[in-house]
Amino acid sequence: MTIEDIMWKTTAAVWESDSLEQAARTLAEQGLAGAIACDSEGGMVGVVAVEDVLFGLVQGRKTVREVMRLPQPLPAHARLEEVEFGGSPLRAVVDESGRLVGLLTKEQYLAAYAKASRLRLKQLDAMFNAAHNGILSIDAKGRITSINPAAERMARTTKEEALGRFLTDVVVPSGLLDVVRTGQGCTEKYRVGKRVYITNRSPIIDGGKVVGAIGVFQDISEIEFISSELETVKRIANELQTVMDGAGDGIAITNRRGAITRQNQKWAALFPDAGQGRIPAPLDQVVRQALDRCQPCSMLHQGPETGNALIVSAVPIIEEGGRSERVVVYVKDMTEMEQLRAELEETKRLLHTLSRQEGDELIYRASAMAHVIAIARQAAAVDVTVLLTGESGTGKEELANFIWRQSARSQKPFVKVNCGAIPETLMESELFGYEPGAFTGAAKKGKKGYFEQADGGTIFLDEISEIPLHLQVKLLRVLQSMEIMRLGAEAPKRIDVRVIAATNKPLEELVAAGRFRADLFYRLNVMPIAIPSLRDRKEDIPLLVDHYRKRFAEKYQKPLVFTDRALAAMMDYHWPGNVRELVNAIERMFVTSASPIVDEDHVTKWLHLEPLSAANPVSVGGIVPLKQAVADVERQLIIEALRRARTYRRAAKLLGVDASTLVRKARKYGIESQGGEEDGFYIASRD
């Protein structure tokens, strides 16, 4: 409620120079209890009430000025409980701009305040009686002055019996008396019989003096009991889980629907791929038997996840009435120790055969590869241009990385550029950069080329044979003078770059064919390093297989073990794709293998191998020209390879040649073929 709600909305006024008789007449005629007193200019200078006028007439005063009071205006939007009216019988009321909007008498103020107080008391009384917590108050002498229904129920008394009686005659706790004595509130938990209560006690202070105390209390017996039971259950559950996790067997508790309600860490390790929160399908049988028979059952299970032999036992939990709704399942892994022993032997064998230098980060044992690494170390020690040659997939980029790491420039940039992947129209700008506005669409700030990015460090130019002839001249200039010319630049820029180039094509033949500049070839061929193909370093295959087996086992969270027969099959394969093909094949085995053991049959299937049989050896029936004999044998081999492999790509792998070479020779010998599933051809007839 605001002042505006209860004021007398009037702007009646008298002049300060008016006589008291005239002011009394004005107030009486308009039925006003008071008015504003104004000066000659109409400004408010005070307020005058009826009693002020009458008192002035009795005392013989003459004008309003002699009896008026200072205006002391009240804000119209102030709340009633925020206003102190004071001793004046009349107050002016103004709005936010200070303009007079009404008058308020003390009678009006007191009547409204009393009404608001009564309403507030009713609200507090309703809250007091509706409160769920018990509320009780006493006076300074310890006599009960109020008690709500909740407190009546807890104290087993009535309001009529309790009011006016001493505190301890009604309730047992006497803490409110201490609050009256000390003036200090407190919170306390106490027990009365089997019931537990918590109370908050506060003093009642009036004029700086303690005149009583009030206590709010709640029965928390049920809450205390539930809390105690919950803590006990949590402790037991924690102890149970600790015992389960410490067990060497996999343990799970399941219901009749196969949903797991609890399991230990060993169980999760044994069945990592099982459905979320479900018993694996192969174990359903023993669980159902245990539930139906209400007695323990066991079975032997070959786990597809690990290939291990598992002993599974299901023990039903018998409830009241002899019925069972839950089962404890125990799984013992009988092959774990054997697997660990096998892995230990494998580790010892690998450690015994591993001969790569510490810090090489390259995997090799073959003498041919050891020779390459020795040359690479020598090349890394001096700032010389290196040309790496070898078939695709032999690891030219890895060897370039090795040279960079071993060199004095290892802390400077190492920029890798695949020349075969850059469009010819963009190659110059990508290699040497361009100035701002050098061509339409150029960046406003220009761009650094790869050579500038490698300044101070090393640049690796892979597939160097793919650089067009007109750019080979510029590359030669860079190698000779260590200067580059950006597109659109007016002057060359000095750089300091170590160049490592690589190619899988014979540059000598390209030079002879006019497709590669001889002077650039000689400039690149300062330190040539020929990387052997994988078929020329087959003793490295077991090391490579083990290295990538561990990498993919971690990546796919799936252990795979290669048998000796599988390794032998992989060593017999000619690997036309070299190490890259080997890595891809191993990853494919991890993705598609359903068994943790990789044997010779798996390798043959994944690599599409079907070794050419020696059941039909070449026979000599007579003397024919050697050239014709070679052609006849070649034709027979192509026909047999196509018959077995069904596609040119697979047949080419069997014969150790490119698919394009095989297609050309098949056409040469008139071997009819037609569209196939993979590479477009398969053998249709021999003649």
TrEMBL record:
InterPro entries assigned to the protein according to its UniProt record, in alphabetical order = AAA+_ATPase, AAA_lid_NorR, CBS_dom, CBS_dom_sf, Homeodomain-like_sf, HTH_TyrR, P-loop_NTPase, PAS
Gene Ontology biological process = regulation of DNA-templated transcription
On whether ATP-binding is a keyword of this UniProt record, the answer is yes
Taxonomically, the superkingdom here is Bacteria
Keywords, A to Z, come to:
Aromatic hydrocarbons catabolism, ATP-binding, DNA-binding, Nucleotide-binding, Transcription, Transcription regulation
Q: Does the keyword Nucleotide-binding apply?
A: yes
Recorded hits in Gene3D superfamilies, A to Z, give: 1.10.8.60, CBS-domain, Homeodomain-like, P-loop containing nucleotide triphosphate hydrolases, PAS domain
A GO molecular-function descriptor: ATP binding
- For this entry, the protein name equals HTH-type transcriptional regulatory protein TyrR
State the organism of origin: Geobacillus thermocatenulatus
Instruction: List the top taxonomic levels of the source.
Output: Bacteria, Bacillati, Bacillota, Bacilli, Bacillales
